[in-house]
Records
---
Amino acid sequence: MAKKKSKREHVWLECKQCHQRNYRTSVSVAEGTPKIELKKFCKKERKHTVHKIRRK
Ligand SMILES: [Zn+2]
């Protein structure tokens, strides 16, 4: 931990349909837990689905 300037946390983007964790990203957690939902390509289902942020 060098600098604590920006509070960023590594999260997973989890498919809402099959709960497959397809992407890893980092989000700002300065204003509490972000509730971001993104349309992403699910490798398992091979189609675009809504992905939810999942904190570790
Ligand atoms: Zn899926």
---
Amino acid sequence: MAPSLPPDPVTVQVTFSAADFAVIREQARASGVTVEKYIRQFAVEQAHEDERLASKIPPPLPWPRRMVLVPPPVTGESFTSWMDAVARENLCGRNALLMEFWKVRRSPSSNTHLLAAALSEDDIARISAATGLPAEGITALLIRRYTDGIPALPTDGEWYEQARSFIMDYFFNANHSRWCPQCIEDNGGRWPLRWKLAWSYACPDHKVFLNVVCPDCRESQDSRNWPPDMRLWCPGQSRGGEGRRGGKRCGYPLAESTPQPVTDSRLIEVQRWINYGFGEGDRPGDGRNPRGLFVFPALVDLILRLRTPAMFGDADPVIAQATGDESRSYSMFTGLVSYRDQADPLIVAGAIYLADRLMTAKDRRAESDWFAALAREGQEARSRWDSEPLYVPPGIGQLVYPFVYEALLRQQVIRDSP
Ligand SMILES: [Zn+2]
Ligand SMILES: [Zn+2]
């Protein structure tokens, strides 16, 4: 098809920089044509190229029709959990929901996290039109709700930005979700978004630690493009003939997996504050506000790296046991930021317990010295090449609680310049 150029002859005024014009003149001379002819040829080629690109863009999808059966999201629910609820109600799979009902272009192989992260403004407008849920209501189900703003963070611009990106880089579990068995039993398999945050270690309503892998097949949950009716049963592959359904889906009832009770009430209190700090739930009525966790998020990360069993002697027995268990597999998750210690709710709970203790102790200096001395011992006990001081980059150093930072420097557990 002929490119849609203005009819010939036409007068077009074009401005070139002196440098560009020198290049054009040079190329025109090399091609043996006049500068005017060279520019005209270039314009025709450009028009062909635009035409070619335009023909590659697929035609727009039709606008979706309003669905009849749309269960509203429950408070704090994740996008994929709500999507599955809508699919279940309409007896269809995820891809049918996305492509046939919502008219959103999606690759069927997308994992659930990528799928939710990749939704464009146009996609959200389509989902809104199909479901009747306002666009803001849909955005609130997406992880960008946290990346866009964490209410508990200091308002100081630079600090805010650093702390926010540190939390999202280190403590957001991109490829799986934890769960409280009692919660999904009570609400029929609806999964809150906050269960994807590494700082969600307990359910304050049921006072239990969250689960992270299926007790039968050890698969993580809410990870892949699984059928929407697998929100109450493990969709993992059962191993060989030993599994519950011999080689098929594991099918373990997730609501029946036994959680471990939280006996330290401070851990529940801190979890309530963390949820509130992320903008969820009511402000806890009493107790100390552990906002320092948000202000100094790198402290939790440092504790994860430097911990020794001796630091958790007074902790909740479940945590003391988990942190003392050297054989515990911390590397069961791979992926951008869902890895190792951060993936284990008991280990993170231990680090948060200790961070809270260091920041709220009566004698914070003495407490920090105690921690640094144990960290030094631990470092020396490890292999030779692991006992070098840990390098803390300058921007990160200010995200560590100052008393602890200074104590660790004094003990040469960390160093702050290369
Ligand atoms: Zn619960
Ligand atoms: Zn399983």
